[in-house]
């Protein structure tokens, strides 16, 4: 294992432990990896104070000076790619190849925003008055709170920390209690990269207590959250009193439409990548497959064959394609969705039950004859279950795809250019993959519409989330 396993909070450049601890499990074995300090209100206050104290000096650095440290942080991640991946797989369960991919993806945000740090341009507006000039600059928001989930224990952090630090903000991070070790490892590397004490702080433990202090603080000017819609709404409400800026990356219910004119082989490849990555536990994973009648049998047959080849197992024991679900609650949700679908007439084409490995392993599953009244149609299953609906017309598919309060990602396969534009524009979704199953990249804006959230991460737009405009009128000229 990596030499950077830490078991306490990182506050103001110091590692602090406490009397109370909680266990971090390996979901593949159910065994405890290490007990880590359980932080609460007091540690969070301490971290906010440290972030506020570090803010003036950090924002006063030139963009290039900040850029050099952020870039170095990303380079260190790549230098230690395999060790980070090992730790990540251990606490999260994803296959090593996926974990290595995540390290590279996470580091890409540090590289990207190290560059963007230098491009926080302002503006000069022609003044309507002869004796004044109007200048617009961009300033860092201030102390930022970040709350992140367990499904991408590294990337969901750098996607927030990189633009925040690039903009000149300082941060208090509360990672998921399921996966704090990756967050601690990031803090070790931040320090090695020369990020000054207090600029990046990590507190893990009692989520509700930590979240309350972060959201109620007048010092914290912004909350960036990735997680469930339920918790996102709760935190937004908690932030109302201090009127914080908000970035919310919440749940989705992604449709994946296969039209009769699609390249079916390509659609199956896209479906496999988008549905089964991370054991189906990403917010952009497909949740609903809509397949046009003429290709329904061909597509579901090919998908079933591909799903049948997935190798399930412990990420650290040989080559596997699918790991366990993160915890027993996640397994329960998958079980209840499948039971509900079968009770309402769905058919199992493959899988459909707990895996023989036990624990939280679940068989990669394909369900046919899915209809809108089933839970799999309405809620994100967040597991390895491909639920296939049948449709006849384009209008029907678009209406069904949009019939959800969510709007994060959507996918469709067609070889008709006019249809590609028409459907791409009609889908109520922040991101659309057209003949593509994987759309995440640091250079493009990631985010949702409707109840999937607010704001965008990554890309040239991502820096704005951590900047405020300031307008200055210079008069008396
Ligand atoms: P998921 O279903 O992906 O675990 P959650 O929204 O439950 O999504 O969790 C995402 C993050 O939000 C985690 O870091 C979790 O600890 C945190 N969290 C959950 N509930 C609260 C809360 N009441 N206050 C603050 N943070 C919370």
Helix and strand topology:
Blueprint: E1 9-11, E2 14-16, E3 21-25, E4 32-37, H1 41-60, H2 63-79, H3 81-92, H4 96-116, E5 123-125, E6 133-140, E7 143-147, H5 155-167, E8 170-174, H6 180-192, E9 200-202, H7 207-216, E10 220-226, H8 229-239, E11 245-249, E12 254-258, H9 264-276, E13 286-292, H10 293-308, H11 328-343, E14 347-350, E15 365-368, H12 375-378, E16 385-391, H13 394-402, E17 406-407, E18 409-413, H14 417-426, E19 431-434, E20 449-450, E21 453-454, E22 467-474
Parallel strand pairs: 7-8, 7-10, 8-9, 10-11, 12-13, 12-18, 13-16, 15-16, 18-19
Antiparallel strand pairs: 1-2, 3-4, 5-6, 6-22, 11-21, 14-15, 17-20
Helix pairs in contact: 1-7, 2-4, 2-5, 2-6, 3-4, 3-6, 4-5, 7-8, 9-10
The structure holds adenosine-5'-diphosphate.
3D architecture notes:
There is one protein chain. By secondary structure, the chain is an alpha/beta fold. 39% of the residues lie in helices and 22% in strands. Helix 14 links the parallel strand 18 and strand 19. The longest helix is centred in the N-terminal third of the chain and has 21 residues. The termini are far apart. It binds adenosine-5'-diphosphate. Adenosine-5'-diphosphate (ADP) binds next to helix 7 and helix 8.
């Amino acid at each position: 294992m990596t030499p950077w396993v830490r078991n306490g909070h990182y506050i103001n450049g110091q590692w602090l432990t406490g009397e109370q601890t909680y266990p971090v499990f390996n979901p593949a074995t159910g065994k405890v990896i290490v007990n880590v300090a359980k932080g609460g209100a007091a540690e969070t206050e301490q971290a906010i104070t440290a972030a506020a104290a570090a803010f003036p000096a950090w924002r006063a650095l030139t963009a290039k000076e900040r850029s050099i440290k952020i870039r170095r942080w990303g380079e260190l991640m790549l230098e230690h790619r395999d060790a980070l991946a090992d730790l990540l797989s251990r606490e999260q369960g994803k296959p090593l190849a996926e974990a290595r991919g995540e390290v590279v993806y996470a580091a890409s945000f540090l590289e990207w925003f190290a560059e963007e740090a230098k491009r926080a341009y302002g503006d000069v507006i022609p003044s309507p008055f002869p004796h004044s000039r109007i200048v617009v600059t961009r300033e860092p928001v201030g102390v930022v709170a970040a709350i992140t989930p367990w499904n991408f224990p590294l990337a969901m952090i750098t996607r927030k920390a990189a633009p925040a630090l690039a903009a000149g903000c300082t941060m208090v991070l509360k990672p998921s209690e399921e996966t704090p070790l990756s967050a601690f490892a990031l803090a070790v590397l931040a320090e090695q990269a020369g990020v000054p004490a207090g600029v990046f702080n990590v507190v893990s433990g009692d989520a509700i207590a930590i979240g309350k202090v972060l959201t109620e603080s007048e010092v914290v000017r912004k909350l960036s959250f990735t997680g469930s819609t339920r918790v996102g709404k709760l935190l937004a409400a908690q932030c109302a009193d201090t009127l914080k800026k908000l970035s919310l990356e919440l749940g989705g219910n992604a449709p994946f439409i296969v039209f009769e004119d699609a390249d079916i082989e390509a659609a199956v490849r896209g479906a496999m990548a988008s549905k089964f990555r991370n054991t189906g536990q990403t917010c952009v994973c497909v949740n609903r497959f809509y397949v046009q009648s003429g290709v329904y049998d061909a597509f579901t047959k090919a998908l079933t064959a591909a799903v049948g080849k997935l190798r399930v197992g412990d990420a650290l024991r040989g080559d596997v394609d699918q790991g366990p679900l993160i915890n027993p609650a996640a397994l329960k949700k998958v079980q209840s969705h499948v039971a509900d679908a079968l009770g309402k007439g769905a058919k199992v084409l493959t899988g459909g039950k707990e895996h023989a490995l036990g624990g939280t392993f679940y068989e990669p599953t394909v369900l046919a004859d899915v209809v809108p009244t089933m839970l799999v149609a309405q809620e994100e299953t967040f597991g390895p279950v491909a639920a296939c609906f049948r449709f006849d017309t384009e209008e029907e598919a678009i209406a069904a795809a949009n019939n959800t309060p969510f709007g994060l990602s959507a996918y469709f396969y067609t070889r008709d250019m006019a249809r590609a534009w028409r459907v791409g524009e009609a889908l109520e979704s922040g991101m659309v993959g057209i003949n593509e199953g994987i759309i995440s990249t640091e250079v493009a804006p990631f985010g949702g519409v409707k109840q999937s959230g607010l704001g965008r991460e990554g890309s040239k737009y991502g820096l704005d989330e951590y900047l405020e405009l300031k307008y200055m009128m210079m008069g008396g000229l």
